[in-house]
Please model this.
Amino acid sequence: MPVAISKLAKKLGFTESEMKAQILSLGFEADDDIEDDVADLIIDELTGRNEKSASDIYEEMSEQEREREIVKTQRKKRAGKGDRSKRKSSELVGVNNISGVIEIPESISVKELAEKTGLSAAMLIGSLMKNGILANINQIIDFDTALIITDGQGFTLKKKRTEGSAKDIFLGNLEKLLSEDEKTDLKKRPPVVSIMGHVDHGKTTLLDAIRDANVVSTESGGITQHIGAYQVEKNGEKITFLDTPGHEAFTAMRARGARATDIAILVVAADDGVMPQTVEAINHAKEAGIPVIVAINKMDKPGANPDRVKAELAEHGLQPEDWSGDTIMVPVSALKKEGLDKLLETVLLVAEVLELKANPNRPAVGTVVESHLDPNLGPVATILINTGTMSVTDNIVVGKAFGRVKMLRDHTGKKLESIGPSDTAQLAGLSETVKSGQILQVVKDEKTARQRSVHIHDLFREEEMIKAGMGMQEILHRIKEGSLKLLKVILKADTNGSLEAIKQSLAKVKSDDVAIKVIHSGVGSITESDVMMAATSPGSLVIGFHTEANSQVRRMAERARVEVVTYNVIYEIIDDLTKLLSGMLEPEIVTTELGKFKVQKIFFTGKGEMVVGGKISDGVLRKGAHLRVLRDKVVIGIGELAGLKLVNEDVDELEKGQECGVRYKGKIKIEEHDVLEAWIQEKKMKTL
Ligand code: GDP
Model:
C-alpha cells in the first residue's frame, strides 16, 4: 500500500522536501507516494528502530511526541539558517549551529555525533549511506568516518584524548596509548635502533664506536655513560640507539608489550659468519616484524669474507640487496670506525620508508629502558619517549611507582629541560625503581599520579595471573574452536642432522585446519631466549629433541605459561603433534609429590590458619602446594601451604634441609611432631 511522503515526513518530523531528500539519499525514488515496505525501511534507517513497522511507530507516537518531534526539527532548522552555505550537500537536512572545534571520542554513535555537532541524525545517516555505510542512529562509527561524513560543515572535529586506563598502562598496552593520537597531529620522529647478533661479533664495540663518533655535541663534554640508550645525529637527523646489546633485552622488553625498537642492526663478524645467536636474532626480529639492516663487521680482519656471510644470511631468509634481495648489508669495522657513516645513512633510509611518527604536543608516553637505585639520586630510570613531550616537574606514573620528574639528563650527563618522541634520557624523581619495558605516562597532577599508582598497585595482584604465553590447554582449546590456524614451534636439538630430520618430518604432519611453522630452530639446550620467544609469539611451543631445559628455564617457562616438551624419539614428536592438531589430545590430572616437612613448633593458631616451624626432611616445599597432615604416619587431613618464611623473608620455594616457617590453611589443627607432605596437582596433556 502506498504511503504519502507528506505523511511520512510529518511522522518523522521533517518537511516534505527534507523527507524527499532523505529518501533520495537512502537510494529510493522520491515521488509523492512510496510503498509501505520502503517506508518501513526508511523509518528503520532513520530511527534505528527496526523491530517495528512504520505504522506501529506512528501509531505509538503520542500526539505530544509528534508535536515535540516537529518543534525540535523546526528549531534546529531555524538555528541552521544562514549557515546553509557551509553545507556541502545542501539538499540534506543537516543543521549546523556550531563552529570551531568539536571534541568527540574515538568512536561515537550517530545519535551522539548529531547531538554534539548539531547536525541532524538523518543527514549523517544519509552521508553514511553515500559512503556505502548502511547505518541507523545507534550505529557506532569511528573517528575517521565521523570526519568524512561531517566534512565541509564549518567546524573541526577533534579526537578527545582519553587518558590511558590504569590497566592499559599496567599491562604495557602501548598500542592503546599511542592510538589516542590524531593522525593530523603526528610529526616525524627519529628511529629507535637495537643492535643484535652473536656474542663477540662486535655489538658493544659498534655501539661504542657509533656513540663516540656521532654524539650530539654537548657543552658538558662529560664522560659518556652507559645509561641504556643514547642518541646520535647524522645529516641533521637524530637516531636513537638502545645501548643494551643482544636480543635478550630486546625480547624481554617485547615480552612486556613494549614496542621500543623500529629497526634492528644485525652484527655479523665477517670472519665468523652466521652463528646460532645470529639466527636467533633474525627470528626474533622477524617475529616482531622489525626490519633488519646487517652490519658485516670486522672487515679489517684478514679472514673477512663478506660474500660467505651474505650467502649464509641468504640461507636464513635475509637476501642481500646487491643480490636482488631487500636486506641492506653494510660492511663495517667497528674497531677501526670504518663504514659507520654508510650504516647510519642506511638507518635513516630505512626509517624514511617506515614513516615513523608521533605527536610531540601531548603528555608523554614512554618506555622504561633501564632502572636502578642511585646512591645520590634515588630511583633512576632511563626512558624512551614513544609519543608526547616530557618536561622537568611533570607528574608521572610507571607501573605502581609514581613521582615528579626532578631531573632529566642525557648519556653525557647534560641536563635537559624536556624531551620529545624517540628521545631518551635518565630520569630521577620516581618513588621506586621500575622494570625495563614498563610503560610510563605523564599525568596532569600529583593527585592523579597517586590515585593511578594506588589503582595499579591493586592490579599488581593480578600480575601473577598475567601469563604471556599460551599454555597447552589454551592451544588445544583454540585449535578445537578453530581460532588457531598456525602452530608455531621453536625447535632445539642435539645436532643439525636431527634438526633437519625433524623439520622434514614436521612438514609431513598434515591437518586441514592448522599449519605448523618452525619459527626458530637451533642446536643446543633450551634457553631462556627460546622461552621468551614462545612467550611473545602467541600459539607457540618449545620442542626439544635429545636436549633439555635446565630448572631455571623450566621455571621461567612455567611462569610465562610456555609449554616446553622434550623427546628422544622423532616418531613421538610427529605422533603428538598430529594428535594436537586434530584436537585429539585430552588433559589428564598429574599429581607430583614435592616434599616433606617435620613440624617442630607451633607459632600461631588462628581460624583455619596456622603458622608452624620445622625442617624440610625431603624434597622441596612450594608456596601454593597442597598439604597432607600426617600424625604417626597416618593422614589425618589436608590443607594448603599458604606461605613460606625463611627467617623473616617470604619465599616461594625451599629445599630439603632448610628450617623454615610454614603458613598452613586447613581445618585440621597441626601438632608438634606432625609431618606435612606437599604435593601439587596439574592438568597435563596426556602425551605432550
Ligand atoms: P659483542 O659480544 O658482540 O658485544 O662483541 P664485542 O664488541 O665485545 O667485541 C668482541 C671482540 O671483537 C672484541 O675483542 C673487539 O675488540 C673485537 N672487535 C669488535 N669489532 C671489531 C672489528 O671491527 N674488527 C676487529 N678486528 N675486531 C673487532
